Amino acid sequence: MLFQYKSLFLALFLGMLSQAAFAQKELEGDNVTVIKDFDARLLESNKLSVPPSLPPLDTNTQLQNYVVPPRPLTLNYEAPKLRPIGMKAGKKEESFNGYAKAGAGVPKSFWGEIGYFFASEDKFDGKAWFRHHSLDASKNLDNQRFANNDFLVNGNYYINDQIAAEAKVGVSFDRVHFYGYDHDSLDFSKEGTRQDYKLVTVGGRLYNKERNETDLNFSVAPNIYVLNDYYSNKETGFDLNLSATKWFSEKHPLRLVIRTDMTKFTDTVTQKLNNIYLQPSFTFHSDVVKIKVGGNFASNRDVFSVFPDAEITLRVFGDGIQIFGGANGDLRKNTYRSMSEYSPFLQIRETRLKNTRFDNYYAGVKGNLGWLDYTGQVNYSKASDLALFQTQYTSTGITRFQALYDTVKISNIQGTVKFSPIKNLTVTGTLSQNFIMDPSNQSKAWGLPKLEGNFGATYTALEGKAILKSNLYMADGIWFLDPEGTAKRSAALVDLNIGGSYFFSKNIGAFLDINNLLNNKRERWRDYPMIGLNFMAGITARF
Predict the structure, then answer these.
(1) What is the pLDDT of residue 77?
(2) What pLDDT, on a 0 to 100 scale, did the predictor assign at position 95?
(3) Measured at the alpha carbon of residue 480, what is the angle toward residues 478 and 484, in degrees to the nearest 5?
(4) CA–CA separation, 51 and 263 (whole Å)
(5) Which residue ranges make up each domain of the chain?
(6) Which residues of the chain have pLDDT under 70?
């Protein structure tokens, strides 16, 4: 059977080969001729149009009901804490509440200072501070020595969100010695040249710490002081300052100040010097101009004085360039306290306490360019009963100074700058030139400098651990009368100082100050030369 199938397949295969061979013989050649391209087309057909149609409108009126939930009138929530996304919080700078400094130097000198700030949440804050500075250069010049001690404590108590009360107490004990005499022919003991100034001040203030709903600020500030010296001279003062400020549109203040300033001085007789001030003013602020209009009404011994209190400031180029000008005036008291602070070698006997009346007019330019802060100003003033300090050659041979009064005209040119030429370096400078003209009684402005300059630089290094500083103080000569009554002028002052400090750790550091590098011994007060080259070193702490 299988053989039959195989035979049948073989016969069919041979037949196909024979047909192929026969077909090959019928071809005339290898070329193929194309008679016509194949072109396939669709027959045209009619396009069917099917336009859209809208359903019929429903014109039936239906009642719609809306349910709106009530909105709460108040919503309390905690304010969100904003923080830049993807940024790490900066390292918080560590703060310190306490500070201490102790040092010693040559000539024999000591410095001690300590202060501390304390607070109790939002209810109370305050500070306590004490400083001692003494120097004894008697080996170079007999009785050239002094000692200053100052203590202050004050605090604020916040009664509620609006009202706060402040109290402060200060004590000062200063000792100086009258070393202005001929050391070749005279000799005085330490007790024979001694002068002590003991000052106690007590004050307070009741004020609003936040602006209230009516945009009204107020302050009630009484202050009392008592001054005693080694020679049983005594002075008391009481100052009550009442002030109120009403703000309009949050930038235009209307201010009223009422102040009573009373002084009583007793040596062999009793003197009183009482002033009362009424000072209203209104200040208008805009982006281009600031205008202040006000007055100062002062009364002393039933004599009324009226002074202007006006100023205009024009912003020429934002904060960078501002020009200003104005007029003001005041009664400035010459008390035993103010005069002894200016000249510690004062002889108060037979000196009358008086007011100096200042009528002042000024103009200038100021600005802040970011890296530079500057002010330039010219002034013209008339000073009536200006206190001058004339030499008094006592019978003991010790030179003292006594206040006398004169009326003068003063022209002044002054300027201040503060800039940072490079990172971490701050440079400051102040220069003032007075032209004192037309004295009514005296030939010179005794005891008053005309040219003064103060220049300083501070550089911070090592991420704040080290601070380097320098200072230059300049002043021209001072006019005085010699024992023969001849007007003379002292030498000029050029005082150069350098210093620095370094913190070894976050709490402990050291400092070094080298003063009067040029060893200038100019006599600021006649027969009282300055201390020459001196230095002090010590440690500092913060906690």
Answers:
(1) 46
(2) 81
(3) 150
(4) 108
(5) 449-543
(6) 1-93
